[in-house]
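Before surveying the methods themselves, let us examine one representative protein, pairing a chain with its fold in token form.
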Amino acid sequence: MTKRWLGLSASKDGVTFVDVEVPDDDGPMTVLADDTWKVQKGDRGEAYSFLYQQCSDYISENSIDHVVVKASAVTGKGAAKLGMLHSAEVRGVIIAAAASVCSVKQLTKGAVSRTYGERNVDDYVEDDSFWDAHTTGGKLRKGSREVAMLLVAARDA
């Protein structure tokens, strides 16, 4: 029986999501959706409330079994900027929304690079043949491949 998984990556302006069906066998995942939820303009508290509801509703309505979120990572580039803090707030909102409905796992890009395959995430993101072999259905946007990579790595973990 296939499972529905959702990959999420937050930025200060929105959330990129990739919705897939994961088969029981080692076959490719089927991409059902690749889109972005925008953080509404105006009061951030109201925007976060709306985003929380949007995320939790999507997970409930689409019978998502598991969510993988791109986790925060230390950049080592000095003090945190406001955009980074807003991204962290958005990440917290989607983690809480997802966890209110199903199981959630957080993965860093660095951890995936260290534990999946023999290349780093950026190499997989650029490799069209990798995506042809690991996904079917909808075409992934280039910017969404990193989110989908979280799903590939979590599946093989």
